[in-house]
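Notes continue from the previous slide.

Worked example: a multi-chain complex. Inputs as given:
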Amino acid sequence: MSPHLPEQCSHCSMYFDAENFCAKLSDDELVALNAQSSLVTIKRDEAVTEETQKLHPVMAISSGVLSLQHLLHDGRKTIAAILMRGDILDLRNSTRNQLGALIALNSVTLCRLSPVVFDAAIAENPQARMLAWANITDQTFRAINHAADLAKKQALEKLASFIFEIRNRDVRVPGNDHVHIPIRRRDLAEYLGMQPETVSRCFKDLAGRGIIHVSDLSVIRILNAPALRRISNGDRSPKGGRLDVPSFNVLVADA
Amino acid sequence: MSPHLPEQCSHCSMYFDAENFCAKLSDDELVALNAQSSLVTIKRDEAVTEETQKLHPVMAISSGVLSLQHLLHDGRKTIAAILMRGDILDLRNSTRNQLGALIALNSVTLCRLSPVVFDAAIAENPQARMLAWANITDQTFRAINHAADLAKKQALEKLASFIFEIRNRDVRVPGNDHVHIPIRRRDLAEYLGMQPETVSRCFKDLAGRGIIHVSDLSVIRILNAPALRRISNGDRSPKGGRLDVPSFNVLVADA
DNA sequence: CGGCAAGTTGAGCCAGGTCAACTCCGGTGG
DNA sequence: CCACCGGAGTTGACCTGGCTCAACTTGCCG
């Protein structure tokens, strides 16, 4: 490790997680990027300022959970997306799509990058380019899946899907049946497009059926993963059907 | 224009639309990309084959509307995303997120690219890189906005938002109050997470209030854009539809 | 012009939203 | 150490937007 490695980077998860953008940068690139960047900590319920969005339209989540919130005229609020460690956010061409407010759901460490240096790194470092590209396409698919969840699933099914989504995005060892829920119930409700009351009832329902165990508000344990998966896949049969992935019976016509 | 310009590219919207990836490629790059690529036409209700997805995980929509569909166990179907001309689809790291079926909603012309040559173009051509990046981030924000629409909006509001989404994505002259709806009512319903019956009732409602005029099933005309905007922004104030105050209520980001 | 898919209209019903009351818990100060 | 407070979560009772089902009309293609 180079002695020139910036201090703030040497402690950052973006640098230590092998799957992250910064981890693929050379020390020189890291120094260059860092020289034009700055870490900032945002407390819960605080927003990323307009100024930051303008001056540093490219940023990366180092830790915590950042939400993108939409507000309707009459006060209804929605968490349209949640961003977690390693996610890159490029606001440069978000002007046409009006993007909502960026609000921290817990203490967030944000690395505000220089667009110019970021672009340079993308241009010159193929590995970094691939990782950034992968992160963005991943975010796209995640958003699309989330939209699919919201479109047709019932409350219980949405909650089941959410549990799997969180488990998949968690950095910890996969396969662990303990799932850490990093946000409040009310935020969870807003993300899933439902009311806190309904979320509460659904947790109770799943626990009552012995599918999960809710120890703490922020930790649940999956007791019956296949059953949970069936619910998240929209299987409403009482005893549940088979637990394979839904098959798409479709015509097939290119090739 | 080089005499070597591939025949199929010379007629393709991806090449002629200035905002598109292929338009930024040099003739040489276009020839190289084309040598490893192939156009295919998919008829309505047909799917992009598994084989294509495997062999050509990177593709671009040249014309038509392609949908990404999710199917639940009990048959509920959702259109999670719609892809239109110019959209780039990179399936290479879609394995972790199970992506649904890619199904044409009308006649789709798809350009199946070579990942290798695509990456090379991205690496060497800054303009092409920026455009590809912009397209993907755009898709991400679109998906997020769509998720926000589905989460908390009511049927009428979702339909209003959809009308604006389609108008914004349309290549034709902006500002035109005629909006062409390129998909069937039932597909629209699946995209918005509602029933065809409800879509029908909502169109009737908007027309009845004098906000839109539905001439043909596939063409509507916006008669009162501010009112439509208010509805899409969730303004439920008393006469949410009348021509009273022509306020320029853009969606509030924060505050 | 016949046949079928797509879309519309109407009547009834239920999942989940709404509202209000209550519990739980962590922090604060006397 | 305990009383108090406020925000978060839970529970119960009620209500409604939009789903469901079924019948009907319209539009499209051969």
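Summary box: The mean pLDDT of chain A is 88. The first strand of chain A starts at residue 38 and ends at 42.
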